[in-house]
Amino acid sequence: MKEFEIAFPIRHEPFEAELRTAAGRALGVKPERVADVRIVRRSLDARGEILYRYRVQAAAQGELLEAYHVPEYRDVTHSEPVLVVGGGPAGMFAALHLLMEGRRPVLLERGKDVHSRKVDVASLNRQQAVHPDSNYCFGEGGAGTFSDGKLYTRSNKRGDLREVLHQLVAFGAPESILVDAHPHIGSDSLPRIVERIRECIVAHGGEYHFGEKVLDLQPVSDGLHKGWKAVCERGSVFAAPQVILATGHSARDIYRLFAAKGWPLEAKGFALGVRAEHPQSLINRIQYHGKYQPGMPAAEYALVEQVDGRGVFSFCMCPGGLLVPAVTQPGEVVLNGMSNSMRNSPWANAGIVCAVDPGDVPAFDRYGVFALLEFQHQVESAMFGFSSSLQAPAQRLVDFCRKKPSQGLPKSSYQPGVLNAPLFELLPEFVYERLRVAFAAFDRKMKGYYTNDALVLGTESRTSSPVRIPRDPETMCAMGLPGLYPCGEGAGYAGGITSSALDGILAATAAAR
Ligand SMILES: Cc1cc2nc3c(=O)[nH]c(=O)nc-3n(C[C@H](O)[C@H](O)[C@H](O)COP(=O)(O)OP(=O)(O)OC[C@H]3O[C@@H](n4cnc5c(N)ncnc54)[C@H](O)[C@@H]3O)c2cc1C
Question: With a 6 A CB cut-off, is 109 part of the ligand 1 pocket?
Answer without folding.
Answer: yes
